[in-house]
Amino acid sequence: MPSRRLVLGSFASLFAGCSASPSPPTTPDSPTTRAEPESPTATSTPDPYESHLASFGRFLDSESVALAELTADERASVVSLTYESDARSTDRLSNEIGTVAGGFFREVAAGWTASRLEATIVAAAADSGAVVARWRAESAWFDAYDRGDISADELSLRVLQTLERA
């Protein structure tokens, strides 16, 4: 089993630059305009919550995270994610969790008001889709990191401590 420092170090490196005000990633197929509203008097304003959810989804796709489901309950301020993984080792799971949590925290830094990400890892389709683990990330933890109240290692540790293997 890898040392805690090694796991935290690799996980924490994914948060480098999270406190900066990042711009959402763009891809060649990213929409740059919205369709005109049907009514000439109505104005169409993109929903910021949905925009962040879409940006988070594009980030996960760009990182080759195999999304099974990504939803948000704006009223409860919770994002739910289910993704497939063939990772079983602590190192690989930690790296995947770091990538996903880093993407969530990046959106929080950009103004997403979601308070929590609840993630479920399921076995890759060939392995029957059984639940492998669950974990969560809290935006309040990122806020503490962004204020300088906790280190990147502490932020990583808080996320990893929520990991529950099935």
Mind sketching the topology for me?
Elements: H1 4-13, H2 48-62, E1 66-73, E2 78-85, H3 90-109, E3 116-123, E4 131-138, H4 139-147, H5 152-160, E5 164-165
Parallel strand pairs: 2-3
Antiparallel strand pairs: 1-2, 3-4, 4-5
Task: Give an overview of the whole structure.
It contains five helices and five strands. It is globular. A five-stranded mixed sheet has the order 1-2-3-4-5. A hairpin with a 4-residue loop joins strand 1 and strand 2. The chain has 166 residues and is α+β, with helices and mostly antiparallel strands. The chain has one domain. It comes from Haloferax gibbonsii. It holds the Pfam family DUF8159. This is DUF8159 domain-containing protein.
Q: What tags apply to this protein structure?
A:
single chain, 166 residues, alpha+beta, 5-stranded mixed sheet, 5 strands, disordered N terminus, DUF8159, DUF8159 domain-containing protein
